[in-house]
């Protein structure tokens, strides 16, 4: 009888020791790195620093924002792709970059599909198309007419060669039937500054960055992407309303983990990230920035990424967009 009980106790202890690593694998037991592959101050960085404290509270571990800029986001993305698959190293970025880079870089140090696992989209911020105040343009129709009739092609500032803002402006130029001179800047903020100063004629940038410039009268907003007009700019129509292409272009911020991260960890992260965006202070800040929560989870994120990668690859190749 005693030997039977001893055997049962040993078996229970053995099962417990086997279960412990599995239980730990589904939890978080040390500092979590939230990698932003851009310089501080951009949309990804703003969002990361908004949610890091809430994620720290929810997961019981310190969440540290780490900026790793360079190579069009590839340096930061590669750091996550090569991290342990334990959910403790996360990538927060404008995931349109993930969709465009395979067609822009002849060789990437990681495979987007294999080495990075979607957790969830976080927010969508529509683009605002803004023109310099010096231009004799008051609205979308006026811009289209002026772009066609101007003696010289308009200078279109963008956030970098091959970025979504650059590609969206290419689509608009094709639609207007008149080429633009595409001028790359080191991000959306410098492109906006160029329009304010009159160095560039127009630009397109996420509402999180551009909205203040429009509402303060530093540039003139003529149209916005997305499904509806922005509350702070009620007189500015959507691309769809004026019949322009690229109606869903914009800033799509999402979170990804190492590609082999166990699904229970991805689900936990999705749950906590979605909950974080419902916190009143965070929700109010996102609304102020013109951003909309999008937290549907891994599968919708993966479908979106596959579709956008295909769309942007075709656009990049059709227009022979090159980084050099």
UniProtKB/TrEMBL annotation:
SUPFAM superfamilies per record: Periplasmic binding protein-like II
Leader peptide range in chain numbering: 1-25
InterPro entries for the chain: BUG, Bug_dom1
Keyword entries, A-Z: Signal
Pfam assignment, any one: TctC
Keyword Signal recorded: yes
UniProt record similarity statement: Belongs to the UPF0065 (bug) family.
Protein name: Tripartite tricarboxylate transporter substrate binding protein
């Amino acid at each position: 009888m005693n030997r039977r009980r001893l055997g049962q106790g040993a078996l229970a202890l053995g099962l417990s020791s086997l279960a412990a690593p599995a239980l730990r694998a589904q939890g978080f037991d040390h500092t979590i790195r939230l990698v932003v592959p851009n310089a501080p101050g951009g949309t990804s960085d703003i969002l990361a620093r908004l949610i890091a404290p809430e994620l720290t509270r929810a997961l019981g571990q310190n969440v540290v924002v780490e900026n790793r800029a360079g190579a069009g986001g590839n340096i930061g993305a590669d750091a996550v792709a090569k991290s342990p698959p334990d959910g403790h190293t996360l990538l927060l970025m404008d995931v349109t970059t993930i969709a465009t880079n395979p067609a822009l870089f002849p060789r990437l140090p990681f495979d987007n599909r294999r080495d990075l696992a979607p957790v969830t989209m976080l927010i969508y911020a529509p683009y605002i198309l803004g023109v310099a105040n010096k231009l004799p343009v008051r609205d979308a129709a006026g811009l289209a007419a002026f772009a066609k009739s101007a003696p010289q092609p308009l200078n279109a500032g963008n956030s970098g060669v091959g970025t979504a803002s650059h590609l969206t402006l290419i689509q608009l130029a094709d639609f207007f039937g008149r080429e633009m001179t595409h001028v790359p800047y080191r991000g959306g903020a410098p492109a906006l500054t160029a329009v304010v100063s009159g160095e560039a004629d127009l630009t397109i940038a996420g509402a999180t960055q551009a909205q203040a410039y429009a509402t303060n009268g530093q540039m003139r907003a003529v149209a916005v992407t997305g499904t509806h007009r922005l509350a702070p700019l009620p007189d500015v129509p959507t691309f769809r309303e004026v019949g322009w292409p690229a109606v869903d272009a914009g800033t799509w911020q999402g979170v990804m983990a190492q590609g082999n991260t166990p699904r229970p960890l991805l689900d936990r992260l999705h749950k906590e990230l979605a909950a974080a965006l419902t916190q009143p202070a965070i929700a109010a800040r996102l609304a102020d920035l013109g951003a909309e929560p999008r937290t549907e989870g891994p599968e919708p994120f993966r479908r979106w990424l596959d579709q956008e990668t295909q769309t942007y690859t075709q656009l990049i190749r059709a227009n022979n967009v090159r980084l050099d």
